[in-house]
Design a protein that fits this description.
By secondary structure, the protein is α/β, with parallel strands linked by helices. It has 2 domains: 142 residues, no CATH class; 187 residues, no CATH class.
């Protein structure tokens, strides 16, 4: 038992959930706990990416003379072996025993940044641990606690919603389509949306999940596509539109930092253009494929300056999106006039 740590405390209730409440040194809690940060490639975990500054700020504060904090919140993951044990006494008191050689036992539900730099801290901190919540239940608790927190990545909340929503296609079709673009290997957006977790080193992020799903929502409202098509068909249409964009604007697509194409204003405006093209197809989805979009886009889209110094630079907000779409529509009208 040399590698086990014993934490005294008591068993109680937090509303409908049974919890263990205790006190321990920050360094001990740090050594037996972990943050289940979202891995954007594997799509495992659910926590926000770690902020060194946020964590350092808390460490400086908690070491001050009059510092205090609300209880740290953990979860004892369901036991797959003997990594932890809870010895209950009839008096309500209990002892939590955790094996220091085990990993991923005590999950940091709401204390990731308070724990970050307390490796060797001897400061006594209060903590509460749920007992045996599933990862999905942990995520639900995290979402309730943090959904209104200032600075929490909106895309991370969208990712949580994609897992916690029972019928995503019916309740949040725009989110389902945005995730389809991110997950589909044939999509030019494959693994290119920022989900709010830890991205794989070296990958180029273009836009956030929140930006894309908001743009798709505008597209669906404008085109009325879901009145006649399934959400699966809508996924294919949006996939093919962006496939065409990546072909006809190849240079801008491959240099996202130097162009407005994949930034918020460009994504919103281009989804507005997609709404125009789909609406003009008059619900004929057989026409709305990559070849169809390429044919229409190649007539005019290259005449717009998509660089950071172009007319879209500096545009923002609803009025900025309206102005950007106006610029795109005007360029298209000029090309149609020349053809006539």
């Amino acid at each position: 038992m040399a590698n086990w740590v014993n934490l005294p405390g008591m068993i109680g209730q937090s509303a409908s959930r049974e919890v263990f409440i205790g006190f321990a040194q920050g360094g001990i809690l740090h050594s037996i706990s972990f943050a289940d940060v979202l891995d954007e490639v594997k799509e495992t975990g659910y926590q926000r990416r770690f902020s060194k500054q946020h964590s350092l700020d808390f460490k400086r504060y908690i070491c001050s003379e009059t510092a205090t904090t609300i209880p740290l919140t953990f979860n004892l993951r369901p036991k797959k072996n003997t990594c932890w044990d809870l010895k209950r006494l009839k008096t309500g008191y209990a002892t939590l025993r955790v094996d220091l050689d085990c990993e991923n036992v005590l999950a940091q539900v709401d204390c990731q940044h308070r724990m970050g730099f307390l490796t060797d801290s001897s400061i006594i901190l209060p903590f509460m641990s749920f007992i045996g919540l599933s990862i999905r239940e942990e995520m639900e608790v995290f979402n309730v606690i943090n959904s209104k927190a200032k600075g929490l990545n909106a895309s991370l909340l969208d990712f949580h919603a994609s897992i916690l929503t029972e019928d995503l296609g019916k309740e949040r079709p725009e989110l389902l389509i945005a995730l389809y673009l991110h997950r589909q290997s044939s999509s030019p957006w494959h693994n290119q949306l920022d989900l709010g977790g830890n991205p794989t080193s070296g990958m180029t992020r273009k836009a956030s999940l929140r930006t894309m799903q908001t743009a798709v929502k505008r597209f669906l409202s404008q085109s009325k596509l879901l009145e006649t098509a399934s959400v699966e068909e809508a996924c294919t249409v949006v996939h093919d539109f962006w496939g065409a964009i990546s072909i006809v604007l190849k240079e801008a697509w491959e240099l996202p930092r130097k162009h407005m194409l994949t930034k918020g204003i460009g994504v919103y405006a281009l989804m507005g253009l997609a709404g125009d093209l789909v609406k003009e197809a008059n619900c004929n989805l057989s026409q709305c494929d990559e070849e169809h979009f390429c044919a229409h886009l190649s007539d005019f889209i290259h005449t717009i300056d998509w660089s950071n110094q172009g007319p879209l630079n500096g545009l923002g907000g609803q009025s900025g999106v309206t102005e950007a779409l106006k610029i795109i529509r005007k360029a298209r009208s000029r090309s149609l006039f020349k053809i006539v």
